[in-house]
Batch of 2 targets.
Target 1
Amino acid sequence: MKSENYIIEPERKIPVLEADVFIAGAGTAGCIAAIAAARQGAKVVLAEKMPVPGGTYTNGGIGANSFYAMSRNPETAKRVVGGIPYELNQRMLEENGGTGYIPTPDDHHHSPFRYVADHEIYKGVISEMLMEAGVTVLLQTMFCGVLMDGTRITAALIENKDGRTAVRAKQYIDCSGDGDIAKRAGVEQVPLWQDYDKVCGGPTGLVFGMAGVDTDKMVAENPKGAVRLSHSDTPYAGITAEQYAFTQVRDPERYQKIVDLDMRAFTSMSSIHKGEMTYINNSKGIMCDASKAMDLSNAEMEMRIKIMKFGNALKSCVPGFEDAYISWASTQLGIRATNAAVCDKMLTNEEITAGARFEDEIGIYGFHDLASEHHPECVIADPGFYGFPYRMLLAKGCDNLFMAGRCVTTDLKAHMSTRNVPGCQVMGQGAGTAAALCAAKNCTSRELSYQELREALLKQEVILD
Ligand SMILES: Cc1cc2nc3c(=O)[nH]c(=O)nc-3n(C[C@H](O)[C@H](O)[C@H](O)COP(=O)(O)OP(=O)(O)OC[C@H]3O[C@@H](n4cnc5c(N)ncnc54)[C@H](O)[C@@H]3O)c2cc1C
């Protein structure tokens, strides 16, 4: 919101909370960063504007991800993501909240396995892990400003039911998705959202689920439009996953109602509970800068209307959905991209797809959302993974600000790899560990010894080779 008119806020005394590490955003990256920093011995304050931790993973997107190097052969594929994200997946299995790693040799992303999580169970497991680690989690708390001393942040300002508080930390991690700390600290940002419709559905989306679905009927009576992609029976007695894809192009008449809603021609769905289409990814969201209050509010409301109509369209035109109803919808708009902060090193798509490796890696990763026959330039070369350099986490021009998650990576195509769930989690663990070490040593992010960071990451079972 822009206004020509201003007032000067009177000076006021605000209480101070002392911490080693302050993190804005308890999302996919932020929770992992907080757990990593706290396990490293740091006093961590994690501020989240929503009432539940989890971010896009629980409140806005889909819990489907790949922890493996790109490969067509699940038998020889290498798992490249370990550490806290892997532990989280294992703990979700124990709570009947994960599918396990489903072999997907025909996946169009060249991803050998897919793991789908139950977003409700994720909320419980991540809460448990944050509490066990001793993180001070402040929910329904908005990060809203910084105090600076030259190139160093001296305090983060937060607002919640208690009013305004200053968190005086030694190190800061921006996991807000939109780069809110970076913006307030004056770090340059690149508006990635503007061209996002050129690389995927759009910068936003609103995932929802429907119950009362007869999936057998859907497949039997609609063999052209409903394609079963993969199936798993895990030994964990928990949940199995089925994935379906709807392609209006194949059956334009039947799907005209959906097309009329300006929904994306290709809609993917995952079912992890019997009778439920758990995740319906109506990827064609609204083109907007979701880091702006007015754009975000309008997009939230437009998408609520769209999914209501989309649910009704599925009910009326897809066999198996006759008795279906919308059983849940993401609590907040799913955002793929707003603005990415300029960091010391910005990965390019060429580096990613060439499998580039760096001397200061905090993790490796092997998924690319664009990899397919249509985008051979996005397939990662053998051995199917690339490195995340430490420098990609360091906000340019700021001594004590780390970036992690979807607000990192300014190259549009490269972002289509790094922004995915395990990528954000790997960055989170790297940033959390580094911030805790810097706080303990009283050094800046650029003075930290890489050898020391590497040893700490290996102790946490991060995969680095
Ligand atoms: C529709 C959709 C479908 C997707 N499907 C997949 C998929 O199948 N597989 C996959 O791997 N990836 C998928 N993604 C991408 C992936 O989910 C996200 O990129 C990733 O989860 C982002 O993680 P993050 O931690 O960077 O941000 P987020 O998880 O968005 O976390 C940011 C957190 O910061 C909070 N926050 C923001 N501003 C403030 C503030 N000022 N103060 C306090 N808190 C704040 C937010 O509420 C949020 O909790 C999808 C994304 C979308 C939108």
Target 2
Amino acid sequence: MVDYHIPVLREEVLHYLNAGDKHLIVDGTLGDGGHAEAILQNSGAQCRVLGIDRDAEALARARKRLAPFGERIILVHGNYSEIQSILAQKNIREIDGLLLDLGVSSRQLDTPERGFSFTHDGPLDMRMNREDSTTAADLLETLSDKELEDIIKHYGEERHYKKIVRFIRKAQGKGPLSTTASLSKILSSAVQQPRPARIHPSTRTFQALRIAVNRELDHLRTTLTDSLQILNAAARMVVISFHSLEDRIVKQFFHDEEKGCVCPPKTPICICGKTSRLKVVTRRVVTPSAEEVKANPRASSSKLRAAERVYA
Ligand SMILES: C[S@@+](CC[C@H](N)C(=O)[O-])C[C@H]1O[C@@H](n2cnc3c(N)ncnc32)[C@H](O)[C@@H]1O
């Protein structure tokens, strides 16, 4: 049996995407194709899925897995932030749903050569798309102290950012930092935690570097905004995030786009012209059940939010 990434919140994704009688769903983070397969299995024969992934290796695996669906699956190697141009190239103007299951797949995390994980030694790479030019090792070499501190502070929400950069610079004095194990060793000595610690001392800095290497938050912001141009009326956008930075962006975006007029309260007639473009369908954030977390601990931090496109 092939060891695929386990799709998180599978039933919830199906419920909120509501793909049954729809025609075209975009899975912007195809990964191993688990969610795409579930969507195809649970929708009518008219429903197609356009799957995008920036990782060519993930795409190759998904291609095999989804082959039985024939022309109902369309695969694209690319970045979901290019969704508008990807659709334009295929002469598609509107879609009936968008799924973003953010972050990295288990396959990426568990492949040491990809350099995402501090639990395996490997090159300090972290590129989701191996055709991109900048690796995590490159960032450590080329960024200024201040730039590196900012990344670790903001993307890792790590309070020991100054000390970490000091320790990294000291180690770089003896030679370039090029492996996950060598960075993790430095982080373990820089970050002192109470025992037993809730997370590994490398967790936050590895997250920060990964976000920076792949410009994850920029791509997410762009895509949320651009998708408003291509979602049909009543089409749903479903986003699963794995840390508070992503979830905050999604929550705020949904909130802002649900709001209509933003004129000051006493303005007699609306002059801002803003109308509501989304209706939030998950009033409370959706999280996995205890059973799901037990079966798949990697689901534990997942949070799902969904909204429906409305036209004034
Ligand atoms: C959590 S996995 C998705 C797993 C998938 N839902 C499944 O069921 O197998 C995230 C995937 O999104 C891809 N990815 C992350 N950011 C991306 C982006 N900006 N554009 C395209 N793919 C992206 C990663 O390469 C990874 O394969």
